[in-house]
Amino acid sequence: MPYLGGEDAVRELRRTLSNPNVQADQLRYRNTILKVIRSMSQGVDVSGLFSEMVKACATVDIVQKKLVYVFLCSYAALNPELSLLVINTLRKDCQDPNPMVRSLALRNMTNLRLPSLVEYVEQPLTAGLRDRAACVRRVAVLGWAKLHNLQPNSEIDASVVNELYSLLRDPDPVVMVNCLRALEEILKEEGGVAINKPITHHLLNRLKECDVWGQCEVLRVLQRYKPQTEDELFDILSLLDASLVSPHPPVMAATFSLFLHLCSRLPAVGQAALERVRGPLLAACGSTSREMRFAALCHIQLLLCSLPGLLGAHYKRFFCGYAEPAYIKQRKMQVLVELVNDENVVMLLDELKGYCTDVNTDTAQAAISAIGRIGRSYSDKCLEILTGLLGLKQDHITSAVVQTMRDLVWVCPQCSDIVCEALEGCEDMLQDSQGRQALLWLLGVYGERVSSAPYTLEVFIDGVRSEASVGVKLELLTTAMRLFLCRPAETQDMLGRLLHFCIEEETDMCVRDLALLYYRLLHCGIEETRKVLQGRRSDPSLGVLIGRPAEPISQWASSFNTLDPLKQVTLETETSSRGSPEHVTFDPKPKNDLSDTLSCSRVDEVHPDSDGVGQFADSSADVPSPLSLSLSPALSPEEFERLWLQGRAVHAERGSEETVEKDIECLVEHVRCPAVPHCSPQSLQAAMQLLNIQTLAFTPPHTLPWRVYLYTHTQHTLSVNSTLILGELLYTGRDKEVKKEEEEEEEKEEGEETTGDKEEEVKVTLQQQPRDKEALRGFLSILTSVLHTLSAEPE
Description:
By secondary structure, the protein is mostly helical. Helix content is 56%, strand content 6%. Strands 1, 2, 3, 4, 5 and 6 form a six-stranded antiparallel β-sheet that branches. β4 and β5 (722-731) form a beta hairpin. α7 (99-111) runs parallel beside α9, α25 packs parallel to α27 and α27 packs parallel to α29 (509-523). The longest helix has 20 residues, at 773-792. The chain is globular and about 100 Å long. The N and C termini lie far apart (88 Å). Residues 572-597, 736-770 are annotated as: Disordered.
């Protein structure tokens, strides 16, 4: 036989198909057609056999019909005229007594995808909608969607749409689901299928009859329906309750997404649903499918944003297996960081330490980064592990450890002494540019504490000609300038050589411009240079704060059961792509002036009087109109710190003209609530979140001094202007006499008189901009009531 891929092979197949003797032998004829299909699947152009294959479709053999239809649908676009010859055979098959033949003919008639054949297809499809066989109705329903997709601009036939709506009550569940899909496609420009109360309850009652993907389709469409009453809402939730714990992860995810949509105004129900899906999600994490495990881990990270303690007791389920792929290991490590607490921190760190020597370098570096993130709360234990890893003398491990130490001292400055001791001799093991940049940044900021800093820097400067990374050169310039300010005698000569090379010989314009900037800055004087390079750093008191506030479910509800969680990358995983911590931006959409966004059009209202919170009112002021609190627009930690320090500076200059210009109001009160500093962070966050008060940072319970930083936006119901309120709760727990002296000094400055025993009081400091004393007093009343409520709860 001729070569399979040549023209001779196609000619041989044509002669065989045209041979009357072969056509008379049914088995030989079918085997020849099978050879044509095999050649087509191997990439051979057999379109020249189209006319012979058209003749072959006129048979009673179903297997032969299927093979021929596969060929015709593949090459119909290349032979539109010859495709007309197939229509008569297909229309004849649509009237065959065998339902399998009828459904096969309808399916392939629509799969030809030729606009010229639409007029011949409509009548069989209409008849197929009323066919007595369910398999034919399934194909006919989807055939109308294919027909509309073929001619999207054609006018929609109202009778067909009505027929499809009536088939939503078809006894076959597959026909019902196919109708939903077809109506979604046909009525796309009108918003999809119209969902009303009768259709909703009909779909919910038949949900269990559908297969897994049919249930997902029904649940997705039902998100458009809005219950009219609360009783109807809870009836729907009751029907969905069984699907919420379905053993099939797609059904569970679709049901939970519908739950979140329906319960957007019922946070308590949403929290209960989070508890219910814990088991199915943990089961999905143990699935044999890697893709399923990865998707479950990504969605678990979403849930932990709103309920950090949801899976705390099941942290061992997220330990990595040896044979698991790197992307699953890295996601599991991100989840483990979220689950760390006082009880399991030792075991988690020991587990992560084992991952640091993984054969996959990305996994090892991710484990080291995870240890660094835990170090923000448990710095001593983590620094001990990180310094031990430096002793392994492996390039990628040393680089990751140095980068992690750089990020750690930026957040926790109290760790700088241990980090400076560990830096000795690290420069020899750093081969990648990110690690060298991290080391240079540490030498520049803490160079006065590292004895070998000038000598290490000289090695980098001597090799600057062979340095390929622009980022390392830029960091080297900044480090040399910073080290010159604290150790001028040792670095003056090497700084001059570096500036000369970068200005005279460097070809990269960014490096050259930065060198010129520093050169001209030195001409302005040492003090001016010091102001630029050694400006204000982050408040060290913020470094001891741990945790993050729980996000409201509404922030991520719309992305659940979509691809968004799989694409999201947390801020901590991006640290390897940046040069130094100064470049971190917590807010994905930074604002130049926060005051421009204070007048928000959408405010989530919280009426104190309706919840009983506002019954506790401050005697010094009355709130004439209801006060609303809102978390929008969100405030980043950097923006909070800037505004807080700015307000504190204005408060220190109270009475000057600057106070009026800044339009900032400050208020200091003491609230007696001895149990609040000992309550759990979860209880405090939940209580504040319920009233739209965002806790930005907090210290652990039973830790002195105990601090909580919070913010909210206030607005009177009858006003369009909103204000931003920043707050600090402080409990020092110091001796009564020392505290009394401080309070007396504050009373003299504030001109206020305080009475009573303040041994167990929490100091509440509020800053507001722009000024609105009524709103500030109203917020203080709400906050005081919350603190009293938390203090009254039994531990």
